[in-house]
Design brief:
The structure holds two protein chains of two kinds.
Chain A: E1 5-7, E2 10-13, E3 19-24, E4 31-38, E5 42-50, E6 53-57, E7 64-68, E8 74-78, E9 87-94, E10 103-104, E11 108-112
Chain B: E1 4-5, E2 10-14, E3 19-25, E4 32-38, E5 45-51, E6 56-59, E7 62-67, E8 72-77, E9 86-93, E10 100-102, E11 106-111
Parallel strand pairs in B: 2-11
Antiparallel strand pairs in B: 1-3, 3-8, 4-5, 4-9, 6-7, 7-8, 9-10, 9-11
The chains are: A mainly beta, B mainly beta.
Chain lengths: 113, 112
């Protein structure tokens, strides 16, 4: 059974640009969550999608957005990139809604220069 | 306001001994707790979880204990192996969905 796949693995962008990251969850999983990991803030929740609907949202500015498709694949978008957006972005998939184990992908390392 | 805290940033243990990693939380609405192991530049790997209706869950060398009255959980690894060396995160979730709140992590070093 394939795990959570995130693409790309590494990305370098310039300030002011926008970026789209992709996540394919484990087959059969309908919940996809996104997290940001930085040395200063640790692992922080961005948002969760379940059945194509955003169900939870973390405390991030509106420049961070996401969506989920009917096949449960998800994308997150960051617009008007800032240097502080440099981080490891992690996607996690879960089987169902509420209190389920979340399985993480390898992450996308975004560097903003 | 950190709702989940791991007060020990690092822990060093001899191979074969027990490793005990601790985690405290403040939100009594959390109903599910998880432990993850993480290597640099990789995603966290799920280790073990526990529901708030239980006080212990065991899986091989890993045991998680939950003390709801103290809002405290711990992960025991017995026996510790050098391959266990990594950063360990505890996480908690609310009943409303799969939004995990993570602690800051504890770096475990198991010496041969």
């Amino acid at each position: 059974k394939a795990g959570v796949t995130q693409t790309p693995r590494y990305l370098i962008k310039t300030r002011g640009q926008q970026v789209t990251l992709s996540c394919s969850p484990i087959s059969g999983h309908r919940s996809v969550s996104w997290y940001q990991q930085t040395p200063g803030q640790g692992l922080q929740f961005l948002f969760e999608y379940f059945s194509e609907t955003q169900r939870n949202k973390g405390n991030f500015p509106g420049r961070f957005s996401g969506r989920q498709f009917s096949n449960s694949r998800s994308e997150m978008n960051v617009s008007t990139l800032e240097l502080g957006d440099s981080a490891l972005y992690l996607c996690a998939s879960s089987l169902a809604g509420g209190s389920a184990e979340a399985f993480f992908g390898q992450g996308t390392r975004l560097t903003v220069v | 306001d950190q709702q989940v805290k791991q007060n020990s940033p690092s822990l060093s243990v001899q191979e074969g001994r027990i490793s005990i990693l601790n985690c405290d939380y403040t939100n009594s609405m959390f109903d599910y707790f998880l432990w993850y192991k993480k290597y640099p530049a990789e995603g966290p790997t799920f280790l073990i979880s526990i529901s708030s209706i239980k006080d212990k869950n065991e899986d091989g060398r890993f045991t998680v204990f939950l003390n709801k009255s103290a809002k405290h959980l711990s992960l025991h690894i017995v026996p510790s192996q050098p391959g266990d060396s990594a950063v360990y995160f505890c996480a908690a979730s609310l009943p409303s969905g799969n939004m995990l709140t993570f602690g800051g992590g504890t770096r475990l070093m198991v010496k041969p």
